[in-house]
Design brief:
A 5-stranded mixed sheet has the order 5-6-1-7-8. A 4-stranded antiparallel sheet has the order 9-12-10-11. Strands 3-2-4 form a 3-stranded mixed sheet. The termini are far apart. The chain has 14 helices and 12 strands.
């Protein structure tokens, strides 16, 4: 059966939720209708733009940039402070409402989720009708708007919901990707971080369509497994299920919330080194090695992303974990401020288990007697 997946994303969530609360308390202006941002004190760790109105975007204000820069671009900008407790309550209300349609919901951040509508569409007619009912219901009940992306897999639903905003419904089924997705800049492909985009542009790959039609072996040569995954995404391929309940990974890991949001690689590397050492010590203490390493990033706006890699052979060495974590981070980092970093290992094996060596791991013996091949003979 072909699945029907919705990706539901609150439009400029922090700003919208703040505007709704202000209007409830008698505010005369709607932050969504004027140049406005949600941000913090310029000297604090939240001194960046967390959300912006459409009017603010016209001034070139970007999410993640310092508040001071935003005010230089628009001196008349209105700023409100964040209220994360209120955001969590708004998020809970939204998810509770969505569960009246189906329990098959995977929440991926405070303001977005995937919804598997496959089993309930029969009673709600078409997917467009269902999306419209949800979208209008949210607006009527809560006073803020959402975008709904519709497709047969999570990737394409996510891409669809990022099309024109706000308060829109978009479809992106496999038969539509050549027209709707392929012309987009490569940087708009999900999981295409800044480092990957730079590499792809050097290969003259400027659009998602360029990547989709490129030789996957060439992409993998330059970006390894992440490049192969991006090529799959560019062709609209994604089999991951909507996970209604958080699956606890069987592995060893560690994460840390940074004292200040990291904005440069030089700030990230020491944190990853510390985490790699911690995870390595825990693996060695448990007498285990890992075949899989993943890196988790939580950005300043609490959106999460993770990326994993299968290792060539199991390890519990901190240097290997660190190098792998750095590689994974650079592949997916969007250059936005980072609030939390994590390293997790999985597919654990006992460190006493025999290890399968590749031909490059085998030490070639020196000549011991006339029956022992020479190094040259063994290499041949």
């Amino acid at each position: 059966m072909t699945r029907t997946i919705f990706h539901i994303d609150v439009n400029s969530a922090y700003l919208s939720w703040t505007a709704v609360e202000q209007l409830k308390k008698g505010a005369k202006q709607d932050l969504r209708e004027i140049p406005a941002i949600i941000g913090g004190d310029q000297k604090s760790r939240r001194g960046v733009v967390l959300a912006k109105s459409i009017s603010a975007k016209r001034y070139g204000i970007r999410t993640g940039e310092p508040v001071a820069n935003a005010f230089r671009k628009c001196p008349n900008l209105v700023m409100a402070p964040p209220n994360h407790q209120m955001y969590r309550e708004k998020s809970r209300m939204l998810m509770d409402y969505l569960r009246t349609f189906t329990k098959e919901i995977e929440q991926v951040s405070v303001d977005e989720c995937y919804v598997d509508m496959t089993s309930v569409l029969g009673s709600l007619h078409s997917s467009i009708d269902a999306a419209l009912e949800i979208k209008e219901g949210v607006k009527k009940r809560f006073g803020f708007t959402v975008n709904v992306g519709i497709s047969s897999n999570k990737l394409l639903a996510k891409m669809a919901s990022d099309f024109e905003k706000p308060d829109k419904i978009h479809t992106l089924f496999p038969e539509e990707i050549q027209v709707k997705m392929w012309p987009l800049p490569i940087g708009e492909l999900y999981m295409a971080g800044a480092s990957s985009v730079e590499t792809l542009k050097k290969l003259e790959i400027k659009t998602i369509g360029d990547l989709a039609q490129a030789d996957p072996e060439l992409i993998a040569l330059h970006l390894k497994s992440h490049g192969r995954m991006l090529w799959e995404f560019a062709n609209g391929r994604d089999q991951s299920p909507v996970q209604a309940e958080q699956v606890e990974a069987k592995g060893v890991g560690n994460s840390t919330t940074l004292s200040e949001d990291a904005e440069m690689l030089e700030e990230v590397y020491p944190v990853l080194a510390h985490l790699a050492k911690s995870v390595s010590n825990r693996l060695q203490k448990a007498g285990q090695k890992a075949n899989m390493v993943s890196v988790e990033i939580k950005y300043f706006d609490f959106k999460k992303i993770s990326h994993q890699k299968q290792l060539g052979k199991p390890t519990n060495e901190k240097d290997v974990l660190y190098r792998t974590a750095c590689e994974l981070f650079e592949e997916i980092w969007t250059r936005e401020p980072v609030r939390l970093l994590g390293i997790r290992t999985a597919k654990l094996v006992d460190d006493s288990e025999p290890e399968q060596l590749s031909i490059f791991d085998i030490e070639i013996p020196k000549k011991m007697d006339e029956n022992t091949p020479t190094r040259e003979e063994s290499e041949a």
